[in-house]
Design goal:
ten-stranded mixed β-sheet; 22 strands; globular; MBG domain-containing protein; transmembrane; membrane
Amino acid sequence: MRFMNRGTVISGIDLTARYRSEVLLGYDNASFILSAGRSLTIMGKSLVGFDGAVGGISILILILAAGSTLHFRPTVRLTMTGLTAPNSRMVLPNISSTVSNGSGATGLVMDWQYRLGTSAVFTVQIVTGAFAPSDALTCDDSQFEFNYSHGLAGVGTISAISTVELGRLAKFRSGLNGTAAPDLTAPVVLGGTLAPDVTALADGSYTQIDVDGSFDNVVPAGTGRTIEVNRTVTTVTMVLGTGTTAVTKTPRSSETAARCDASSRAWM
């Protein structure tokens, strides 16, 4: 999917940026308002954010109104072995088909690369839960290419999880200005709820938002984790740890009224 906004969008829809999507919420002096009750979902390996010409006009993008939700969901690359036949056309699921480990983890296959013998690499967008090495994946046979069996069919076994990438919101080079990097300021009012899915992520620090703003609430998916949400003048970073589920939020290092609507500055 490719989307570009060069004017004013007041969104009464739920918007999802999937694998390899390019969603330009604002270019130059555009504005984008996500209304109450609506959501923006950003999947890993998508480009979502802003761009502007060299010396471009500053933009104000109101991403989250009170009552709206910003979701971040992971995309994973799975190294698969033990596919059910050596012919890739017989065993690989169709793009956008659903795979499952039978224990609560499901995902959409967005891409695959066939390897030698009975191995392949799947790019999967997580829907629920988290996959792990040694998981045996299944897929309904109606979603296979040229597979004529009935019922659930074995896809293969995960031998390794090579990458896990959570979506992020930031400036990116859209190509509208050739090879020039974005050159603009992007003050953003972030109210509503931040809802990251951290189930598949290792402990560590993740910068998910490279703009200005704060959140009314943080509701993560994934238990048994500690989550510290830190903000500076321009970023929102999550620090994940292992332990009893808890969320802490720290105020940003310096308040700048010109860059953040005072009504959405408070952490509740």
